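Good day; I would like, with your permission, to put a structural problem before you. The record follows directly beneath this note:
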Amino acid sequence: MLLYNNEDMKSKVIVYDPTSSDKLSKVRGIGRYLQILKENFSNEFEFVNNETMKQLNNDCVFVNPFYNFLQRPLTLKRIASKQIAVIHDLIPLKYPSHFPAGIKGSIYILLNKFALKNYDLIITDSEASKKDIIKILGIKENKIKVIYPCLPKEFTKSQNSKEVLSFPRRRESRLKSPYKNEITDWIPSYEGMTLPNFCLYVGDATWNKNLVNLAKAIKIANVNCVFVGKVFEPFSGKAQIPVLSNRQGPLWGVAAKNTVSSFSHSWQSELKDFFELTKDDKCFIFAGFVPDSELIKFYQQATLNILPSRDEGFGFSFLEAAQFSCPSVLSDIPVLREISAKNVLFANPNNPQNIADKIRKIYTDENLRNKIGADAKKRSEYFSAEKFKKEFLSVI
C-alpha cells in the first residue's frame, strides 16, 4: 500500500500508464498528460501497466488518463470502488468523415460507450470539450469535471535559466527579414539549423490540425516555419538534420523526399497533401521530435507560435509558448478563445490569406509582438501546477 501525506485520501489511487508498453505514446498528448500526472502525484498515485492492472481489487480509485474510443476498452466491467475517465476530446467522433473508424474501430466505439457506464466521473481539459461530451455522448453535466492541465516542471524552471536564454549572436551575419523595416543582427541556432526569424508549429498532423492551410499561409507570408513533432521525423532527416546556411534552404535527405508516397492511410491524407505542398520549399524546416530542453529553446527564439487548428481539446502549444512570452497566432475557435482568454491574434482557420496576414502583423510590429507575448505570459500563470493538483485531488 502507498503512504500519503493527504490524510483525507483513504483509498489507493491507481492510474493506468499506456506509455509503459507503447513508446510512441510518450511523444504524443497522452505522454505529456502522464508526465504532469507523474510529476504532481508521484507520492499520491500508483502508475500501472496492463499486467499490474489485472491485479487490482475493488478497494481503490482507478483513473484512466486517456479514454480512447478507437481502441479496445481497458475493461468492460467495474474494477474499482471509484472509476474516473479522462476524455481529452472527441474529435474523431465529432468529425467521423475525416477520421474513418473502420469496422473494428466502430465496434470499439460501441464497446467504449458501454464501458463508460462503469465510470463515476469524467475529467476533461476544457469547457469546449465538456460541451462535446454532453452533446455527443449524452453524459449528464454533473458527471463531468473540467480540470485544466498545467505545464511540466521543466518548462516553469527553465524560464529563469541563463543558459537557455543565452542566444548565440553572430553580428557578422546580419540578415534582412522578409519585411524591409526589420533587420536581424543575430541568428538562433539549433543543431546545424541557422534561422533569422521563424514561426513555430508544435504538434501532430491529423486533419483537425489544418496543416494544408498553414502551409499555404506560410507560402503567402514568405516566412520560415519550423515544425516540431514525432510525425515530422521522416522529413527531418534525423540521420542528417536539415541545415540552413545563411543564404540557402534546408538540405533534405533522399529518403525524406520519397517518404511522401508512404502516406496511404485515409487518416494521413491531410499529411500527404501537406508534404506535397511543402516539398523542396526552403521556408519549411522539419525538426522532428525534440526533448523538452530543446523545445524550450525553440519557444524562446521563435518570432511566434502558430496553431491554426480546425478543432482542439485544449491547445497545449499556446500554453507552452506563453510561458516564454512567445506570442501566438491561433485559429478563431471556441476552445482556443477559452484557453488563451484572447491574449493572442486570432485567424480564420479556413482562410490562408487571413492566417498569413496575422503572421505578418506580428512579424512587422515589435510593440504588438511584445504586448501579446507579455499578455500570454500572464495568462499562462492561471494554469498552475498547484491549481491542477488541488482540483484533481478534490475529485478523488
About this structure: DSSP finds 17 helices and 16 strands in the chain. The radius of gyration is 22 Å.
